[in-house]
């Protein structure tokens, strides 16, 4: 049972080859991929930060270009000598004097307005305001929408007095000053500078205002999952692609501390790549916030493609390996099936492997071995048959049957002549038995003739003992014509008379019939029977005995084991012989002989 369990649970040769291939190839590759993935994790993170930095550099370049245009406008007003001369002169005049200005003064005012118009044509559209200390102002927009003098109410304009001449003040995000612009451009950014004379005295201010949407459009050109904003030193959002966020505090920036230009941070249980870029002309900065998965999606996509390629490669490899293993192990599986049939006793099967490799050579050697085994079995069978014939010949020679047959015939005629018919019949029965021994050279006779011999044998036995034995015969007509070995029943009848009935009176019954191509013969006596222990030993001895032991009793001196062995040697499909007995009831011997097939008994037509 343990051997069968190990056979069922042990892996097949093909499974072992697959497992070895996976261990030697699959596991190292998988380990390499895992180690590679672990070692490149930092590289992926670094590459994601580099990509974010490059994108933010490009945005910073565009934002700086817009703000440079604003700065250039303020610079031009501050450093243009001709324009400054006019403005200084205007600042020294009262408003009444300006109102009563001459034509020359009018042309100067016109030149100032035309100049500030021209300086905003080349770059981004911006609004320029020049405020003089005496209340005079110049703009490139309609003052009907906004009073430039309102700038004096701004706190940052008062703080501007403390700045040096070339220092600029960025006001941060404010509501758009022009009413007609507020619908499309709700916010604006302004830069202001002081206008100073040769004594560094302030005679005016120049204010350049930029619409926030100019910067927003730049920020909106990025990935929709990427959040880019322009913030001041207090992390207040100055520009964002979502207008609702403008003017609010950048919540994430309050939770983290930016120590590098680009870094990976965690907020609300999520990882982000945060990149910041300081602007050169003020304390503002651009901040990019990208979810880590989005930042690494392109790189991870490459890894996914690599893994997919490897998975497909492995699938193809294992399919090819399975095909090759099937081709290689197919002869082995065929040999396994052949060996199983040989184990079950079929020695006619042969392996059909045509390859010239080691498996093919093994197949040829296995077939040659089966041929030798069949030859040896045939030789052993023939030897046993010759041995049995020699034993019968020896028995016949021991009683000198020719001499006895001739003498018995003479005695029978004389006895019959003197009128002793009973003795003459006894001699005739003995002569019949001897005639079958001498004249019939074949090993098999019909069951009908075998029973006739047994009737003569019982008649002789009744003559030599006081108590008579009754022989009953119930044989089907189909069974009578079946061939059986000569003297098959004699040792069984003899045992029944001597051992079963103890040479006393009794009944011996012979039954025979044919069912489903099997000849059944039953020999029953109503003698003393056999104990269960002796019966078990006797049935076991029939299967294990190899040589029939002679007995000093009986007609033929051939025992039960000899009958069983003769049956086994006479048929290719082995007959069965079983003894059944009960004490004080009797004994029954059952013989089961399969019919048909080479070497089996065949029907005999008399």
Automatic annotation (TrEMBL):
<protein>
    <submittedName>
        <fullName>Sensor histidine kinase</fullName>
        <ecNumber>2.7.13.3</ecNumber>
    </submittedName>
</protein>
<keyword id="KW-0418">Kinase</keyword>
<keyword id="KW-0808">Transferase</keyword>
